[in-house]
Here is the input.
Amino acid sequence: MNATLIAVALSLVSAGAYAAAAVAQSRLAGRTEPSTGVLRLLGRGAWWSAVGLNAGGALLHVAALNYGPLTLVQPLGALTLVAAVPLGARAAGRRVGRVEWRGTVLTLLGLGALLLTAGGSAPHETLTLPEALGAGAATMAVVAGLSRPGARPGLRHAAASGITSGVASALTQTLTVAVTDHSGGPLFSWRLLTVALLVSAFAMGGLLLSQTAYRGGLGAPLAVVTLANPVAAAAIGLALLGERLRGGPVSLVLALLGTAAAVRGVILLSRAQARGGTDPGEVVAAPGPVAEPLPSRVVIGSPRRADSTPLGAEPLAVRMGGRPHP
Here is the structure.
């Protein structure tokens, strides 16, 4: 079978495992207090289920990296988003909103455009020890900046998770190619040991950062992870591993357009998450007594009644069924 087809097939199954893991992490985050430490998570079966699914996805991803370059394998991780958004909505007992679908489709179209520009040859180059250490140091600096206290920590932690996971994939490819290389080089060396330690640190760091990011919901953080991951890995592939985009300047334009579409999709998913995943105008039933029907003169979707009286502006006694005090 063609190496590219093997890489694609393995990436598809890997994306499914990652999607199930993301949903499991999101549900665990929703049931966990923000102050809960890592040691508390280690005692929960749901955490280990997510770890197992992530590990399965990672092993399949490593196998795919043995047959395809980073610029091909990493964008296929966008399929995680396709599966995880409806799975997450089903787990939450609701339907996927139109805004979520539009955000998902735009993100996938953008990453699909990036996929079209990727090369398709099997990887041969590996990172040297200085290159691996340099990439690791730069990644830690970026993650430290994204993890600082401030607004919208969920999306920043999601970006940090995607970057660390993407760099871990790039380092993993170096390990995979070096171990499967039959040129007679040493199987164990300081370079491979250092790269293996960096892979372990970044993989665990990405998992913990994503767990923090999913506290605010699944859609937008997962979209950010899905976008940041291939961008970080492709940057290393293009800058250090000799990978190239197909098509020259046309591919560069297509890649820029794809990036813009993916960013727009992430923004839509972020807005949908801020509204709790519901579309504008969608009525969500709340528990409790059934409310009385709205008066016929209320204009749906407007903050005022038809007689220009603001809704809720009548005296409290009237709203409670009594008479207003003078």
Notes: The longest helix spans residues 3-30.
